Amino acid sequence: MALCQLFIQPEAAYTSVSELGEAGTVQFRDLNPEVNAFQRKFVNEVRRCDEMERKLRYIEAEVHKDKVPVPQVKDMPRAPNPREIIDLEAHLEKTENEILELSHNAINLKQNYLELTELKHVLEKTEAFFAAQEEIGMDSLTKSLISDETGQQAATRGRLGFVAGVVQRERVPAFERMLWRISRGNVFLRRAELDKPLEDPNTGNEIYKTVFVAFFQGEQLKSRIKKVCSGFHASLYPCPPSNTERQDMVKGVRTRLEDLNMVLNQTRDHRQRVLVSVAKELASWSIMVRKMKAIYHTLNLFNMDVTKKCLIGECWVPTADLPNVQKALADGSNACGSSIPSFLNCIESDEVPPTFNRTNRFTRGFQNLIDAYGVASYRECNPALYTIITFPFLFAVMFGDLGHGLIMAMFGAWMVIKEVSLSAKKTSNEIWNIFFAGRYIILLMGLFSMYTGLVYNDIFSKSMNIFGSSWYVPYNESTLEHNKALSMNPTESYIDTPYFIGIDPIWQTAENKIIFLNSYKMKLSIIFGVVHMIFGVCMSVVNYNFFKRRYSIFLEFLPQVVFLCLLFLYMVFMMFFKWVAYSTLSEDEAYTQGCAPSVLILFINMMLFSRTAPEAGCKEFMFEGQGTIQRVFVLVALCCIPVMLLGKPLYLLSTKKKHVKPEQSNGNVNQGIELQEQTDIGEVQPKPQPQSSGGHDHDDEPFSEIMIHQGIHTIEYVLSTISHTASYLRLWALSLAHAELSEVLWNMVLTFGLKDHNYVGAVKLYVAFFFWAFFTLAILVMMEGLSAFLHTLRLHWVEFMSKFYAGLGYIFQPFCFKTILEQEDEE
């Protein structure tokens, strides 16, 4: 990683940064951290982009409102040049105004259509009201309304008036109560609900309305009724009193509705054509505007020189990509026709660079697992490479089943084979996105689980006799019939040739199967755990060597690895020695199976300097001189503790190592110009900083602080060797639990459908197989798989990576259009 300065002419800045965004290999630094975002040079251009984004959002909303499909972009458009920006801005302005005008016209036409429709319904419904009134007689209605008037007033009264209109259906009860109260019961209200809902012109939602006619007498009551109608947002329409006039008005309204409906259809077709033509370019316009906005945001990170004739920027660039950056700058200058080329100048810096790990589709998932723990410090040893093998293998130790592993491998293989089409389908389902991102991890976990399932000789809790068992039954048929269980002596029933690979299938039928597998898998978990931890401790040598802390190899690494090997690797050695030395076929009674000592008891006695009396004819130790060797190992291991505790602090105190940090003035315009010549891109090699030790270094602190840190690390390491070794026993526990769950599911569910041999048994088998398959996928593959995955992740993060990995760096985040667009799409 190299820190570089960019010197770009203002007229070539836009195109140059555009080319760098397409390349995606440069991380820019902000040279104006104290300048407000609204006071930067290109703030007006950013606002123009925001305005164009607003127009695009409005156009997109109108397109989706009319359910017009938006085609996907096949070829990603490049950022528009400054001349194209003006054309794009004018085109967006024109398109927005056209759609706005069409929308307003459509709303006005729909409003007119709604009013005419309501008027038609009012005329049609009131016709029925008046016909009913003519049947019962107008006089009876009049008398019921004003029965308390005197004869003289009744003689002088005029004809009843009425008001007709429509009101929303949910407001009708309150509307009736209000009319009754203001008129003291002197209003006769008739209403009828509309059968079909009407369309709201503004929102397009369906609205249900009711036609009403209110009969009254007097102008004062009429004004009150109109005020109530206004308060309830009821629409009033003129309704002639005579039948002939109403019929003529209905005919006229229907004619106008037909004409208006024709105009609405033409307007809708025109709007549809406009939106379809816009939808074809909408995705491209959106990408171009977002790229343009990203470019101007990046240019705001640049600094202007004193003469205002050059833009200066600083960026981190991977050394291997320096030629690509130089080419992008040259292409940017040529694109705008600049006579002065832009150039790149690599400068020295004491600042810790960002961490950049090149990944591909296969390694990206494993790198994400490591980055979730912590991003590696610059040039720190990256455990992702080894995790590609160790992660699926330790998972498979816990998940070892050939059948379950095959299901997982098939699922991972399907995602890998279909990854192009599946990745093209954008989805917001987080669970699916997690599975798809780890498709290669799932594939490898499935394949490794198939291998360990073959070693365990376990497929859906059943064994396979592929190569023929190494055991045979020495009993005759009568003996087998009259005995429920028989013991098989290895001296009589074993052919002294082990099964070709894995566990002999005869253990599937043995009553002591769990006892045997318990011991076997427990020892395997300890062996794998100790080897894994020793490998992690050895990886620290790479960090010590690169960061120029070679004294730590002798004062930290050697005591740590000696302590770990003399105690726990020695315990692993005893396991192998016990497997090899003790046998039923041994001629020496002390090395027969009955005299094999417990490795755990030997290790405890070793640590406590105690002894256990052996049985008659047996030996306490596995070989001569083992007791003396064990005491020496423990004493040497104990001597390693003060070396780990005091070695490094005393060495630093004796050498009085001091660090003087130079000033970081990377933003200086003249830095790297007047003091050094132009650097050849092909010869640039960033200098590793020895003082940056990946988060492990405390050399520049006072002696007391160094002692405290070293004491904490020493205590943590000594205790963790015990706790971490015990933590690897989860390999044994989960493997045993997975096998037993699988066996229980087979015996309790699937066996239910295999008991009957008639037609009913066939039906039972279908039902039993359905439940067995469901629980196998849901519990044994999904839940047990997730559990084993989390335990494997913990073994790597805590037990393995804590031995050498700090993870205190920060990720390299290049300016890349592809990444920016993907992040915005996810949001």
UniProtKB/TrEMBL annotation:
Residues in the signal sequence: none
Gene Ontology CC: plasma membrane; vacuolar proton-transporting V-type ATPase, V0 domain
Membrane topology of the entry: Multi-pass membrane protein
Coiled coil stretches, renumbered: 85-112
BP terms from Gene Ontology: vacuolar acidification
Keyword Transmembrane helix: yes
InterPro entries: V-ATPase_116kDa_su (IPR002490), V-type_ATPase_116kDa_su_euka (IPR026028)
Task performed by this protein: Essential component of the vacuolar proton pump (V-ATPase), a multimeric enzyme that catalyzes the translocation of protons across the membranes. Required for assembly and activity of the V-ATPase.
Name of this protein: V-type proton ATPase subunit a
Gene giving rise to this polypeptide: jg10066
